[in-house]
Amino acid sequence: MSSDLRSPWLREQPVLPPFFGQPELPKPQSAKRLVVIALLVGLLGGVIGSVVTDSISDQRGISETLTLPTFTTNGDANESAVATIAKTVLPTVVSLQVSGSRDASGSGFVIDAAGYILTNNHVIASAANGGSVKVFFQDGSSYDGKIVGRNPGFDLAVIKVNATNLPTLPLGDSDKVVVGEPVIAIGSPLGLSGTVTSGIISAFDRPVTAGGSGDTSFINAIQTDAAINPGNSGGPLVDGNGFAIGVNSAIATLGSGSVGSIGLGFAIPINAARRIAQEIIQTGTSSTPILGVMVDLNYDGPGARLSDITSGGPADQAGLVAGDIVLAINGRSISGSTELVVAIRANAPGATIELRVKKANGAERNVSATLSRQVD
Hints:
By secondary structure, the protein is an alpha+beta fold. The protein is 15% helix and 37% strand. It is built from 6 helices and 22 strands. The protein has helices at residues 3-12, 75-89, 121-124, 270-283, 314-317, 337-345; strands at 20-21, 34-38, 93-99, 104-112, 116-119, 132-136, 142-151, 156-161, 182-187, 195-212, 215-224, 236-239, 244-254, 265-269, 287-290, 293-295, 304-309, 325-329, 332-333, 352-358, 364-370, 372-375. The strands form 4 sheets. The chain has a 6-stranded antiparallel β-barrel with strand order 9-10-11-14-13-12. A hairpin with a 3-residue loop joins β4 (104-112) and β5 (116-119). The longest helix has 15 residues, at 75-89.
């Protein structure tokens, strides 16, 4: 996300325990509170990790295409398909043990045969300043991992091991998956490497914020009911053809102090992760799309009210002014500040977006803006 949105938003965020975040989800009718948890938590020797999954294919062609049977929901046929997909995908998924400012663990998956592995930033962030990352493969081999680059705003990172001819996970198209489509999640929940769970796509475009290691990520998330638990972070969410369509990053849980799957898991869409990973592999850095605005955090919606406009930025060039209320982006309704952030981040820098804006006089109009980029 752009610094223009990040600074005022993060400054006013409530202080939460490490690795805890708050999703923009409908408030339940009961007194119970939903809390989104970025599943990186390195507890007592780093047994528990986070959840995140995605796979990447850069301009050099990171992943090979696999032809696998599609899920069915008919008894043994379903079990056979899931087993076949799991058998093929498991060699591409790794467990990570991280030592640094604190110990942690998580998951990742191979996106390039030359040793590049995609994971969550919150999994490896504690090793960013002089720490270490140990990478364990399903065949029992292990390597030291080097952090190539990371993007805290998107909660993504790429690490590299000194190995070649590694099996890679092919990337799918997260724009083409549909609600109800079967998926599987693979990772190392609670340190149990090679764990496979199955479910469906429950929803798209969930605005989720998740925090970890001092960073807050804004995720335009895929929601799934596949069981995701601490340690899954950085692992893939895979479709019925064995293609990664997301990076598992967070879960929602009832505010009872327990941390575990209640069927509300969230993954970073693979299309966004692919772009970030490509940039990191090629340059060591990545970019975030910027609209060039600040938001009024005291405004309750609907929409997001702009409190300041960056001179010469995309919003300024599009004719937006302080006090304008953004009601929709590319036809997607905006309910508040967080949804504005994730709706912008669903696009790449340089993309032209259509905004529905309500002016101070109450008139509504459509505005086009071309997003600029901020290098992270």
